[in-house]
Amino acid sequence: MPTVDSVRAAYDIASEAYASKFVDELDHKPIDRDLLQQFAAIVGAERPVLDVGCGPGHTTAHLTALGLKATGVDLSPKMIEIASRTFPQSRFEVGDFCSLRHESSSIAGILAFYCIVHLQPDQLVAAFSEMHRVLRDDGVLLLSFHVGSDVIHAENFLDTDAVLDFTFFETSQIEAALSSAGFDRIDVRVREPYDTEHPSRRGYVFAHKVNSVRSQ
Ligand SMILES: C[S@@+](CC[C@H](N)C(=O)[O-])C[C@H]1O[C@@H](n2cnc3c(N)ncnc32)[C@H](O)[C@@H]1O
User: Fold this and answer.
1) 131 C-alpha vs ligand 1 centroid, how far in Å?
2) Is the alpha carbon torsion for 168, 172, 173, 178 positive or negative?
3) Is 165 in the pocket of ligand 1 (CB under 6 A)?
4) Which long-range contacts (CB under 8 A, 24 or more apart) does 24-28 make?
5) Which candidate, 151, 143, 128, 141, places its Cα nearest to that of 200?
6) What CATH fold (topology level) applies to the domain 4-208?
7) I need a surface site. Which of 25, 77, 173, 198 has the fewest CB within 10 A?
8) Ligand 1 centroid from CA 172, angstroms
9) Model pTM greater than 0.90?
């Protein structure tokens, strides 16, 4: 079973290859750009957002360009080194989204693109609860994942020595875990893969932290 240490070590090994392959990917993904634009509009300009599991930082930089105060957070120091070097206009820090250093109710939005792929199903609620903790009331989470029930084992991820398992999730599993973590107004969308992507259907979810006093 993958551990935080094994995932960190794998992405340290694969970081340069991952950056080469994915750093320009948003240029070819109009639906993802549209979802990021919707996320930015919900959050509002100049408000603090985290891009958790940011990898080489391209989505963080995109959020910065959309006017948000974006900080990319990743487990892998090598990923953060690449992100900081490539996108000096954004902020980056090493961190674990299951144990964020940020204060409760301090963040207006969290982007989590394809970083839950290394969690086991029974770890989802704890991870989403931590994201819920740091979000302000009315804060929004946008996450993405591979839809299905497969677990893909990569022995030489991106032709490197990195070993990783990628877990797919059914949309109902994600919805249930978000709901258990306290999220509300959960809006799930699914798209077919682009030709340039791994041929899996992609799930995107907007989920909101609703003010518990006002919503009663
Ligand atoms: C598949 S990559 C996705 C990177 C980027 N979000 C993207 O869309 O290209 C997964 C990333 O999540 C990071 N990651 C995995 N588990 C993490 C955790 N618990 N906390 C922070 N980052 C994590 C990995 O280091 C890796 O950079």
Assistant:
1) 14
2) positive
3) no
4) 24/58, 25/58, 25/196, 26/58, 26/59, 26/62, 28/194, 28/196
5) 151
6) Rossmann fold (3.40.50)
7) 198
8) 22
9) yes
Which residue bears the tokens 């891009």?
A: 51
CA of 115 from ligand 1 middle (Å) equals 4
Cβ(41)–Cβ(67) below 8 Å: no
Give residues with Cβ within 8 angstroms of 162, minimum separation 6: 9, 10, 11, 13, 14, 154, 156
Encoding tokens for residue 185? 């107004």
Place of tokens 């797919």: 168
Cβ–Cβ contacts within 10 Å for residue 33, how many? Answer: 14
Q: How far apart are CA 135 and CA 42, in angstroms?
A: 14
